[in-house]
Design a protein that fits this description.
single chain; alpha+beta; about 100 residues
Length: about 100
């Protein structure tokens, strides 16, 4: 399952939002919440001007959105949260047939 998760993260492409000089605010939390509902798995990046590290941003967003931090590498991190709407094709695309 680890390899499939890695491939799913790689396929997520562009980050839905970036943590910038404003840090983790309400707008970012709302944007990430919507992206998690639509995609379940998102990759984010933290700009050099951000007042927080990738680990701090990931932890704040994890608490605010109820997501799980999958990985933190350098200035990037990955969040996962199952969609509230049942979408078996999305889950199957991420994890394969479980």
């Amino acid at each position: 399952m680890g390899l499939k998760l890695c491939l799913a993260v790689k396929k997520t492409g562009q980050s839905p939002a970036q943590v910038g000089k404003g840090g983790v605010g309400e707008e970012l939390i709302t944007s990430v919440d919507h992206a998690l509902e639509a995609r379940e798995l998102i990759k984010m990046s933290v700009l050099d001007t951000a007042p927080v590290s990738a680990r701090e941003a990931a932890d704040e967003l994890e608490e605010a959105t109820g997501a799980d931090v999958v990985a933190v590498v350098g200035r990037r991190f990955v969040l996962y949260r199952p969609s509230k709407k049942k979408n078996p094709s999305l889950t199957r695309r991420i994890f394969g047939n479980m």
